[in-house]
Amino acid sequence: MAVYAALLSLTRSLHQILNLEKYIDPDLHKGKIVSLHEKVCFTLIFLEDYSDKLYSVVGDEIRRAAYEAQDFIDSYLCSISANIDEWSSSEKMALDQDLNMAIERVDFIWEEVMKMKNSDGADDILRSRTHSSPVDDSSTVQLTVGEMVVGFDDDLKSIKDYTMDHFDVCAWITVSAEHNKREIFSGLLRSFKKPPTHHNEQSDVSTAQLEKIVYQNLTGRRYLIVIDDIWTTKAWDDLKKIFPNDDNGSRILLTTRLSDIAVYAGYSSTLIHQMKFLNEDQSWELLQKRIFGQGSCPPQLVGIGKKIARNCGGLPLTIVVVAGLLQSPGNMTEEELWENISENISSKESTIEMQCSKILCLSYDRLPLRLKPCFLYIAAFPEDSQIDVSKLIKLWVAEGFLKPTDRSKCLEDVGERYLGDLVNRSLLLVSKKGPDGKLEIVGIHDMLRDICITKAEEEMFFCHVSSQRNALNAFSENRHRRLGIHSTHNSQEWLIPDSSIRSVLFFTEMRIKSSLSISCRRLSILDAPETTWPNFSDAISMFVNLRYIAFALNDISCPHGFPASISKLPNLQTLIGNRTEHGFIESLLKVPYEVWTMPKLRHLIMNVPFDLLYPSNVGFLPESGLETLEKVSNFKFTEEAVKILVNLKKLKVVFYFESDNVDDFNVDYLFRLKKLEELEVFASDLPDPSMTWNYKFPINLRKLTLLEVPFPWENMNIIGSLPKLEVLQMMNIKVFEYSEWLPVEGQFLQLKYFSSSLDGLVKWEAEKEHFPCLESLSLECAWDMKEIPSGIGEIDSLQFIELKYCKESLVDSARRIQEEQHENGNYAFQLRVIV
Question: What is residue 555's three-state secondary structure?
Answer without folding.
Answer: coil
